[in-house]
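From the pipeline queue, job 12 of 40. The input is one protein chain; the requested action is below.

Action: predict structure.
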Amino acid sequence: MPPAPELISPRSSRVTAARRLAKRNFRVKERLFLAEGPQAVREAAGHRGEDGPTLVELFVTLDAAERYADIVGEARAAGARVHLAAEDVIAGISTTVTPQGLVGICRFLDTPFEEIVEAGPRLVAVLAHVRDPGNAGTVLRCADAAGADAVVLTDASVDVYNPKAVRASVGSLFHLPVAVGVSVADAVAGLKGAGVRVLAADGAGEHDLDDELDRGTMGGPTAWVFGNEAWGLPEETRALADAVVRVPIHGKAESLNLATAAAVCLYASARAQRTRGARA
């Protein structure tokens, strides 16, 4: 075992720099973001981008270093600088109410949209006007679980590197390609050009998800476009899609929240694609 690093001072320039990453302008300037908790740090330590290992630094309390010795070892093996830190230092860097003792600094890992299109994706989630970071992270997690090939966050959506979005993804941010900053029109045009059918998810859609499944139209390459939590998708965005599809409400609920609707849509496509693949 290598010797434990020295306890870092709360006044250290490294701690100050880490705190600043809670703000978007500093994240964009440095192209770095925070990943908190054992799951996110573990996934970051195992991820490698074009610029090298994604995890570049790790701040960890003595208690967490003992409890998660395997994660700390993975971080060191990945080449990350590991700093032992007092709990008040971690609390100052963390954006959670109850920090878990591990905060990593990671390189941006977004993928150019053109690379996603060129890879021939079969299932993509497009977050067109999603503003809540928790919802963005949860939809990313749903896309990962459903086996999607990529997630696209348009320039009208929240920053995927917002600490709350990173936490809500529960490590899925490190699992699949994510493109950011693409206009809705460019995202739809690029996906259509790659032979992907683009469906807009909207509670007032003229097409019913159950009917689409019954007709067998869901088995091909598909991109789902999800809108704002409160007002859904604007008309100009719906008009870009090949179809506007609603999730049927069979009970008395007024509607589904964004993440739940996204999970239903993505899993419906994933199952239809697997079924078509089994029959091919």
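Job complete. The first helix runs from residue 13 to 20.
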